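batch job 7 of whatever, protein = Probable membrane transporter protein
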Amino acid sequence: MPPITEVLQLVVLLILAGGVAGFLAGLFGIGGGAVLVPVFYQAFALAGVDEAVRMQLCVGTSLAIIVPTSLRSFQAHYRRGAVDMSVLRRWVVAVPLGAVLSTFVIAYAPADVLKGAFAVITLLIGLKMLYRKSSQWRLGNDLPKNPALFGCGTLIGLLSGLIGIGGGTLNNTFMTLYNRPMHQAVATSSGVGILIALPTIVGNIWGGWGRAGLPPLSTGFINWAAVLLIIPITMLVAPLGAKAAHALTNRQLSVLFGLFLLTISARFFYALM
């Protein structure tokens, strides 16, 4: 058993992470996994969780938390009329399909390859968002039609599920490259997070069922103790992030999102050292 001071420090860290994750969920339409996964990794290491299942447990637990967080953020944005429901309706199969595939791929894909690819992608996207004339970068004047749109949704679900995020990072970039306003992209991403997290909960429970080395109160690769601690905080704070998003201009929101992506990229590059 770790000393009581370390346990208390861990609880405080998780509470702070929950607040940050909830605010980011509302501000950028993301599920907060980019914040929670590294915190969970340190928390489960302190608890003595086997390294063979630790990263899977972090990803699975993060995705379980994303469901209520994204739902709360989605409700806040929907009330403001900012969500593109036509996109979500067309992705109701595509995004969950990619998310389910991620629960199979994660068991075989080399972790360092996935981390390196994501670090490079987020670095490039972050630099794009910070570039003042990035609003002129376009792949098209509107979102592509099916089957291209279906494929993009599947890819967003797949990549997001692999690293335990709610899809906002990728969907925000995708929609803005196709001439959609940043506010609409952020709002729609909160709905994408729900489409990703729900099927991955089932997949991660199935994938980790009966695995040795998991901590108490875990079902497969989901630790319910961490889930129950973080969810109330994220749901309380998410509307504050959504309110802040609508108080900013498109340019301000783009800059903040770019800085956030560069931070994620740096974390992944550091993990490869």
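notes: DSSP finds eleven helices and two strands in the chain.
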